[in-house]
Backbone:
């Protein structure tokens, strides 16, 4: 457990040294959670990347890029098309 405490202390020091670091880390974690959620939804529905691409009118590589965070400036409507094609929902909460 000591290493975990040392890591937390180090992270705390980094956050204090760079006030924008926590925000950047939080953004990256959110992006990863979205990407993982997309993959889990698609796989949970038993749909391949190729089949989903055909459903929403994009290429399979576009689906792969979206799922692996290699797409810049993803539009909300793109996420909604992806998710709703699989029968999911995209709740948006602006706080």
Residues:
């Amino acid at each position: 457990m000591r290493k975990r405490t040392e890591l937390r202390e180090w992270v705390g020091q980094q956050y204090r040294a760079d006030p924008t670091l926590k925000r950047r880390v939080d953004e990256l974690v959110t992006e990863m959670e979205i990407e993982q959620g997309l993959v889990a939804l698609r796989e949970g529905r038993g749909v391949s990347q190729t089949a989903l691409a055909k459903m929403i009118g994009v290429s399979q590589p576009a689906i792969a890029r979206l799922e692996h965070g290699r797409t810049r400036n993803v539009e909300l409507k793109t996420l909604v098309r992806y998710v709703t094609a699989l029968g999911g929902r995209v709740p948006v909460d602006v706080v």
Summary: Residues 53 and 60 are 5 Å apart (CA to CA). Helices lie at 2-17, 21-44, 49-56, 60-67, 76-85. The mean pLDDT is 91. The chain has five helices and no strands.
